[in-house]
Amino acid sequence: xxxxxxxxxxxxxxxxxxxxxxxxxxxxxxxxxxxxxxxxxxxxxxxxxxxxxxxxxxxxxxxxxxxxxxxxxxxxxxxxxxxxxxxxxxxxxxxxxxxxxxxxxxxxxxxxxxxxxxxxxxxxxxxxxxxxxxxxxxxxxxxxxxxxxxxxxxxxxxxxxxxxxxxxxxxxxxxxxxxxxxxxx
Length: 185
Known about the structure:
- This protein has helices at residues 16-27, 34-44, 49-58, 60-73, 86-89, 102-116, 126-148, 169-184; strands at residues 5-10, 30-33, 79-82, 94-99, 160-163.
- By secondary structure, the protein is an alpha/beta fold.
């Protein structure tokens, strides 16, 4: 059974939150970001996003708390969720993966942090962001495989994969909305 839920996963810096917010607005749906929740947990603990990822390797309840919130949302409708694991907890959702090469991602994240800031995350240079992003990605890959047996690099569960590098945010939103409308009918 198809559900009126869109889950957006993807590479770090690929535009999950920006795309999720815009897609939700376009469709008149609600939006939730598990990344924002994870950053809030980091802030509560006085940790950076990199530090909370390392802590999550030792304290599984950190991931379990975020994932429990996602599982609770599975019964809701008219929702867009940007999260690396929501597609796993909501198999009846329209599952989107936003791809982006790590170097372009590092540049985007660096520029975003310098321009707007980002809770629990700093950026000394693009290279620093590249290194911390690679460490974060490795941590998440390890944790999700250990906790759930999920390979976050396996794109086969997704209904749509979009490379965000050659596309503007508006183009990505249009691709996702059009594909979702075709899928839900």
